[in-house]
Amino acid sequence: MASKITLGSRIKALRLEARLSQRELAARLAKRLKGFDFTYLSKIENDRLIPSASAILGLAAELKVDSDELLALAGKAPADVGDMLQKSEGARMFFRSALSSGLSEDDWKKLLEEIKRTIPVNIELFGELVLELSILWDEIEELPGEEVLAGLRAPDRLIVMNERRKREMEQKPGRRRLTQGHEMGHWDLFVDKSKLDHPMLFEAAAPGIVAYRSSRGGQVQIIETLLSCEEGIDLLRQMKSRADTADEARSVNRYAAAILMPRAIIIDEAKKIDRTHWPNLYRLAERFDVTISALRVRLEQFNLVYLDQETKRLYPSRENAQGQTRLLF
Questions:
Q1: Are 43 and 118 in contact, with CB atoms under 8 Å apart?
Q2: Is the pLDDT score of 329 beyond 70?
Q3: pLDDT of 10
């Protein structure tokens, strides 16, 4: 049985056909993309890193291949759209037309708004196109009792998803998507981009020595090289984790919710259903591909649902719940 063609395997095959080493191809890309090197290329070829759209376009140009094919293999569009780009010349013509049409900044923003209006929102595409962040699945060390879902490597513009937690996040894609949105919120709201190219603490150590990571207790800062020795692990156990402040947690969670459940769309869709029945809310959460708890919190922000914590009864709004309470007395 023929092995499945992946983005990494396709790029490697094209590179070998061009008689280029990883270093040679990376050197060419480095002229187009700042910071691109052979280690980055090795991760792409081994399907350990999803490159940015600009990196894919650069690779396509250097390897003399249709960029649409690589974009489709990278999952830069929903599966059906990716298949269409591979099979339909008309679809590729439309994509090229959009690239060559000389759209103004406002036109591109409107186009991106249309992308974001697709339900469920493609959170990874949003991160790539709007924030220019890449996503890498890799193992992240966890201390005993710690659950780490993801990390943000700001200098590399990289969201690292914990491969140790891949199975459970794939079983609950809403949780994975919210985790990615959470990290995007930290990048967009709290990272000082002007300092990314400046020397950092422990600059002599490997990149990513200090990372902020999502866990059930909030964002945890950990010095990764300390995990390599017992003394370091003991020190980490004694260190206080840097959990999100209440305002920061609220901000990044609302940021993620705003991407995944845009205000105008979620309000319109919520008003079409009976919000006092859990099955209806579960179906709505499934449509937006978010967790039921995230949906409930989002609807509560717009006063479109209220959960009585004692009775667990749902009301269409806080005022309805208060009205029912007054009637009982």
A1: no
A2: no
A3: 93
Joined tokens for residue 95: 């994509």
Residue position matching structure tokens 């595409």: 125
Query: Is the link from the previous residue into 155 a cis peptide, with omega within 30 of 0?
Result: no
- The angle subtended at Cα 155 by Cα 160 and Cα 179, nearest 5°, is 30
Q: How confident is the model at residue 112, as a pLDDT?
A: 58
Q: Is pLDDT at 46 greater than 70 in this prediction?
A: yes
CA distance 52 to 134: 6
134 SS3 class:
strand
Q: Are 195 and 310 in contact (CB under 8 A)?
A: no
Domains of the chain, CATH where assigned: 7-102 (1.10.260.40), 134-253 (no CATH), 261-328 (no CATH)
The one-letter amino acid code at 136 reads L
* Integer CA distances (angstroms), 32 to 77, 111, 285, in order: 24, 25, 41
CB neighbour list of residue 247: distance below 8 Å, 6 or more residues apart? none
Are 282 and 295 in contact by the 8 Å Cβ rule? The answer is no
Task: pLDDT band for 25, please (50, 70, 90 cuts).
Answer: very high
Q: Given 3-state DSSP classes, what are the helix, strand and coil percentages for the chain, each rounded to the nearest 5?
A: 60, 10, 30
Global pTM value: 0.54
pLDDT tens-digit readout, 196-231: 655 443 333 334 444 445 544 444 444 444 555 566
| H and E: helices and strands count for the chain | 17, 7
